[in-house]
Structure formats: C-alpha cells, structure tokens
Amino acid sequence: MPNTTNLAYTAPINPPSAPSTLTRPQIWAGLQRKIRHAEEFVTAISTCTVLSDTSDLLNGTVEREVQFAPQAGGAKARETVVSVNGLKVDFHQADGGLVSNIISDSGEEGDRGLYMTYTFQFVSKEEQGTEGWEKERKRMLGMARGAVEGSIDTIRRLVKEGKL
Fold it and tell me: Where in this chain does the entry annotate a coiled-coil region (predicted)?
C-alpha cells in the first residue's frame, strides 16, 4: 500500500468581514463549475476537459482530464469526480489520491454559519513520520489553506460577475 498524507482545512464561507453572503445553492453551483472549469479555481491547471458527465443538479459523476500549466510540471491527470447530494464533491485521482470539497454547517442560523472543508489524501513518496514527510505535509497544508480560501473567493467573484 502506498504512503499517504492525510489532512484537512476548514474556513468560514461567510465570515463577518465578507463583502457579501453566499448561499448554499450558490456555493454548490460554484463547486459544480469547479468540476468542469478547474482552471478558474486552480492556477496550476491550464485546461480542463470533460470526458463524460452523468450528473444532475445534485448528484453524479464526471470523468475529466486536466492539463497542468508548464510551471506546475505540464502533466495531464485524469480524475473521476463524484458529486454527492449538494453536500460534497470527491475528486478521485488515478494514483489513489482523494480530495473532498465539503459544505458544512456550524449550527449558526442561515448562510452565515456555512463552512468549506477540503480533505486531502495524497499519495506520497515519503515515509510517514520522516523529516521529508513532515516537510511535505507542511507544504501541503499551506496549499490546502490556499485552495479552500481561493475557492471561496472565486465563487464569490463568479456570483458578483453573474456567472453563478
């Protein structure tokens, strides 16, 4: 079994400082757009091609291929992306990795209590517990924070632009 690095990062979607309040349907629409237009959300991705799509508004599966930008290695990666009932999106990677984007509630009433959590299971060449693994985990945690906060910002921008 390959070595894996597991981590998660959570951020409030509508903190008091937010310029506008995103609703759950807007957030879900943003995650659905992210599946099909990854390059709008992930700067390391230059193109995203949908190979098949058996989705409805809440559930379904998309097979896609992403092309990473030259500065990110330029590789292509194929993913199976599963949307689950307006709650989460799972990105299954060919190497066995898994990234989940989850919309959760804090118990606070209304859309102000929404949170975005990304969980990551990365396949790693480093042995768990080693200095190399710790360094890689720290780097990935910083990337996770940027991914969550960047996705929320992108969804907010797309809503403002009338694209969601």
Answer: none
Residues in the chain: 164
- The sign of the torsion formed by the CA atoms of 78, 55, 5, 105 equals positive
Q: How many Cβ atoms sit within 10 Å of the Cβ of residue 35?
A: 23
Distance CA 26, CA 5 (A): 31
| Residue 129 scores a pLDDT above 90 | no
Interior/surface letters 121-154, b for 16+ CB within 10 angstroms, e for the rest: bbebeeeeeeeebeebbeebeebbeebbeebbeb
Residue 117 near residue 10, CB atoms below 8 Å:
yes
pLDDT tens figures, 14-40: 999 999 999 999 999 999 999 999 999
Rounded-to-integer distance, Cα 50 and Cα 79, Å: 10
| Contacts of residue 157, Cβ cutoff 8 Å, sequence gap at least 6 | none
Helix, strand, or coil (residue 66): strand
